[in-house]
Design goal:
mainly alpha; single chain; about 120 residues; 4 helices; about 0% strand
Length: about 120
């Protein structure tokens, strides 16, 4: 009986995780795959995995091609998703800053040309 209790204690979080991931995958396939942001995130996931294969592993790869328990894979994917959002925000911030510097340079040249 003790072995069954220990097994259940170990199995339950992973059974819950795979059930949640299956439902999430269904909703994702049904509702999100046609959206541009979904496709962009998948490209970013792939790029990060290409650049950092030991650091960033997509959830699909963790579940399909590893022995990582489902609950651990789901937790890791959540951390990685937060990282992707932060990277996206940082890249967007850098693009806005670069655009602002470019606009400032153009305006400065326009005023310098008027002054002469």
């Amino acid at each position: 009986a003790r072995a069954i209790d220990e097994y259940q204690h170990e199995r339950k979080p992973n059974a819950d995780a795979i059930a949640d991931m299956a439902l999430t995958n269904f909703v994702e396939m049904r509702d999100r795959t046609a959206h541009r942001m979904f496709k962009l995130k998948k490209k970013l996931d792939h790029t990060l995995n290409h650049w950092m294969p030991n650091v960033f592993i997509p959830l699909y790869d963790l579940v399909s091609f590893s022995t990582v328990p489902y609950a651990a894979a789901r937790a890791r994917a959540a951390r990685q998703d937060r990282m992707v959002v932060r990277v996206g925000i940082a890249v967007a911030g850098l693009l806005v800053a670069a655009l602002a510097v470019g606009v400032f340079a153009v305006v400065r040249r326009m005023f310098a040309a008027e002054a002469t």
